[in-house]
Specification:
alpha/beta; Rossmann fold; 2 domains; 7-stranded parallel β-sheet; 6-stranded parallel β-sheet; 13 strands
């Protein structure tokens, strides 16, 4: 099957954008002449990130339903109608062989209009608890690629394929060893290392916990690579002055960051969890309680139920952060179990399997 033209829609967060880009890269590698068009939501991060990755994107005037500030929903019907019309126009002009949705506001109108035009649609659901967009689109989809078991509760069982989540090629192919990674990042080569990740914007409560435990890290002779997020760099940079605490707003070389770590402290976004499974390091998952349907907690619970990570709710950070860290730092056996169990959940061929399915339906 030769792919000539596809549309990919997904965005709003990195959790939707990075899988979409991974799928696009795999398609481009197999079919260099394939025309790939992204469709996103105006004003959202995909409108910047996708062109940076080398792909064209068109934006729809669309947003989600506001659960709390309900007065903002007054414009939603107009946005939806506008987006449906523009999506219909895009599909008619591009004539894709297949439309791919990775979740997010824009994928709803785009895949709905693609389906009405007779274009096969393939969904990629990252989370253990699906978002509303993919739930609504699932009945008309040709196939639904998932990363967790048990999604028959939400999707037609006969359409589900458990492929796992796409992982960035640079991570899947990385073979960097710990010593080289630490040297590259300016860390001490032989010092126990904790990597702290709170997402590109940062996580307020994780940052606060790390800052409050700087003396703990010093006492335990642990160095920390701390990604605080660009929203918090100005707050913490002046306060942190210790040779073994490396504070950065953003880590561009994630392959080196993962390779450098003995323990990883992280949010529980679906894409991040898929990367952590592939990396196979001991992980403390601190889910964000501020996401739709509390899906990060559900993601983290699935991993913890498989004895593959430690789940630490954000509400327990103040009381248990040092206790949980101390146990992992000092217990070689527990770290070994976590490494072994999380590696069992890795799906290194996820992106390839998803594109196999796309080719099948195209």
């Amino acid at each position: 099957m030769s792919l000539r033209s596809v549309i990919i829609s997904g965005g709003g967060t990195g959790g939707h954008i990075f899988p979409a880009l991974s799928i696009a890269d795999e398609i481009k590698q197999r079919h260099p002449d394939c025309e790939i068009l992204f469709v996103g939501a105006k004003g959202k991060m995909e409108m910047e990130r996708v062109p940076q990755a080398g792909y064209p994107i068109e934006g729809l005037w669309i947003s989600g339903i506001q659960r709390h500030k309900k007065w903002k929903n007054i414009t939603f019907p107009f946005k939806l109608i506008s987006s449906l019309w523009k999506a219909r126009s895009i599909v008619k002009r591009v004539k894709p062989q297949v439309a791919i949705g990775t979740g997010g506001f824009a994928s709803g109108p785009l895949l709905q209009m693609a389906g009405k035009a007779g274009v096969p649609t393939v969904l990629q659901e990252q989370n253990s608890y699906p978002g509303i967009t993919n739930k609504l689109l699932s009945k008309a989809a040709s196939a639904i690629c998932v990363a967790y078991d048990g999604l028959e509760r939400f999707f037609p069982a006969e359409k589900i394929v458990n492929t796992g989540n796409p992982v960035r090629r640079v991570l899947a192919e990385s073979s960097m060893n710990t010593g080289d990674a630490r040297f590259k990042l300016g860390l001490k080569k032989d010092m126990f290392t904790v990597l702290v990740l709170g997402g590109s914007l940062g996580a307020r409560e994780i940052n606060r916990a790390v800052f409050d435990h700087l003396r703990f890290f010093e006492h335990e002779k642990v160095q920390v690579l701390w990604q605080c997020g660009r929203l918090y760099e100005a707050e913490y940079k002046p306060k942190v002055n210790h040779p073994d605490i490396k504070l950065v707003s953003f880590i561009s070389d994630m392959a080196a960051a993962y390779a450098s770590a003995d323990i990883i402290v992280s949010r529980a976004g679906a894409g991040t969890i898929s990367e952590l499974c592939l990396i196979g390091k001991p992980v403390i998952l601190i889910p964000s309680p501020n996401v739709a349907e509390d899906h990060q907690t559900k993601n983290a619970q699935y991993i913890a139920d498989n004895d593959a990570a430690v789940l630490l709710p954000e509400s327990e950070l103040n009381e248990r952060f040092s206790e949980v860290l101390f146990e992992l730092i000092t217990d070689d056996k527990k770290r070994s179990v976590l490494r072994r169990q999380i590696a069992k959940l890795a799906k290194p061929n996820a992106t390839s399997e998803i594109v196999d399915i796309i080719e099948k339906y195209a």
